[in-house]
Structure formats: C-alpha cells, structure tokens
Amino acid sequence: MTSLAGDHLRKHFPLDKVAIAFIYCDYNAADRTATNLIASLLKQLAQQASLQERRLPDQIATMYETHLKMKTWPNMQESLRGLRHVVDFFEQAFFIVDALDECRTQEGVRASLIRAIIELSADINVMVTSRMGSADIEQELASHPTLEIYAQSDDIRRYLDAHIEEGGSALAEIAYEDAGFRKEMLDTLIRNSQGMCLLPRLHLDALAQEYSKAEIRKALKSLPRDIITRYEMTFQRIQDQRQGFRLARDVLTWSCAMHSRPVLDR
C-alpha cells in the first residue's frame, strides 16, 4: 500500500517541488531505532535536494561536519530540526511510515517514534500504516484521520491456497489429498486473520512444521491472536532448530570420529 501511495504522489506532484520520503519499520531489525529512522528521512530529503542542485542549509552542513569529525550520529532533536530546514526547500513534503506496529516497543523505540511523527505532522504531510490492535498507536494517533483497510476473506483464501501449492511439506500433501481438511484449516486461519494476509501466512508456515492431521489440528487450536506473538514463536522455533542442528552435527561428528578411529591390537 505504501508503494501505491508513493507512486500516486510521484504521478500527481512535480518532483522538483515536492519531497517524498519513506521509513519502514521492521520487528527483526534491532538497529532501527527511532533516532535512526528519523535520520533516514533527513538523509532522503538531503539527497533529493542535492539531486536538484539545491544548496543545503548551513545548519545541515555544520551538523554533518561536526558528527563526521566526532564519529557520532545526530540525536533525535537535531534530526527533527534538520528536517524542518530542508523541508523549507520544497513547496510540500510527504513522509510515509510503513508498518508502525512492527516498530519495537523495547527501550521506548516505538513511543519515541510516535512522538516524532506527531511533532512532524504539525506542518508536514505524514501517512502512517499499521495493523489494528496496537493500543498505544491507536491511542496516540486517535485525533488524526484514520482509514481502516481489511483483506477480504476470499483474497486471503486464494493467497493461502497459492502458498500451500508452493510448499513441499507434509501439510501440502495432506491438504492436496483431503479437500475437507484443507477447507477446515483455511477456515480457521481466515477466522483468526484479523483482516490480514501476513498473520495467517505465518500461521501456515508454522503448521507446515507438523507431520500429521492430528498435530495440525492441535496447533490450530492454539494459534496466537497477534502478529508479534507469532513472530516471537517463529524466532523461538528457528533457535530451537539451530540448537537441534548443532546437536545433530556434534553427534554425527562424534559418530564419524568413533568409526574412523583405528582399532589397536592388544
């Protein structure tokens, strides 16, 4: 959706007069702090101004040279001030923040980013995308216009069907052989989708780790209801698999060493 918004802006506004910048939140990226994300907006606008051969404000040049010399990065307030200086070069500025709900809550990262977004929205056009269900986001942005968009059940079903066909797991084979079970499974995933495509897709990936109908049905009864919990469970499964792989590797190495050890005559 954010790519469509960006394409719309580029199509309907002259790029030499309008600044367009994006930031993408990612639960997996620990380095995407609120300060780094806001600094990336400043970097994008500075690059756009340079491409149009516009001289950057002295404040930006001074900030850059200072931090380059000190080998440091701008803090949040420096980046926000810098943004306002660069925005003045353009007739309008549009900032798009994608997947705010995937911004980490640890160490106050998301709260800090939300405060910065609200501050910027006072005089800059800001669009934020987020899944429903994050109380802090809904509360902090309650006074701003909101448009709720949900995936249709038929679209989710087609998406999951296609994903099943791509897989080579036991689940794919079971679903192919038993149309009734396939429908039962997809119906359950769609009921728990909360209007999203990603959440049931992640659920389906987790179900693909099971090897029988009984195990799949059992897993269907304990699906997490929010995407962050599903992410955490997925990470844990990956870690468990890595530990299992290391153990299997160590056992195999030990076994090979034992079989290759020469037998000494006594």
List the SSEs and their pairings.
Layout: H1 2-12, E1 18-24, H2 34-51, H3 58-70, H4 76-87, E2 92-98, H5 109-120, E3 125-128, H6 135-140, H7 153-166, H8 170-177, H9 179-191, H10 198-207, H11 213-220, H12 227-260
Parallel strand pairs: 1-2, 2-3
Helix pairs in contact: 2-4, 2-5, 8-9, 9-11, 10-12
What can you tell me about this protein's structure?
With 266 residues, the protein is mainly α. The protein is 60% helix and 7% strand. It has a three-stranded parallel sheet, with helices on both faces. α2 (34-51) packs parallel to α4 (76-87), α9 (179-191) packs parallel to α11 and α10 runs parallel beside α12. It starts with a helix and ends in a 6-residue tail after the last helix. Mean pLDDT is 84; it is low at 258-266.
Overall mean confidence score, pLDDT:
84
Rg, nearest Å: 25 Å
* H/E topology pattern: HEHHHEHEHHHHHHH
Oligomerization state: single chain
Q: Quick recap of the structure?
A:
It is built from twelve helices and three strands.
Give structural attributes.
mainly alpha, 3 strands, 60% helix, disordered C terminus
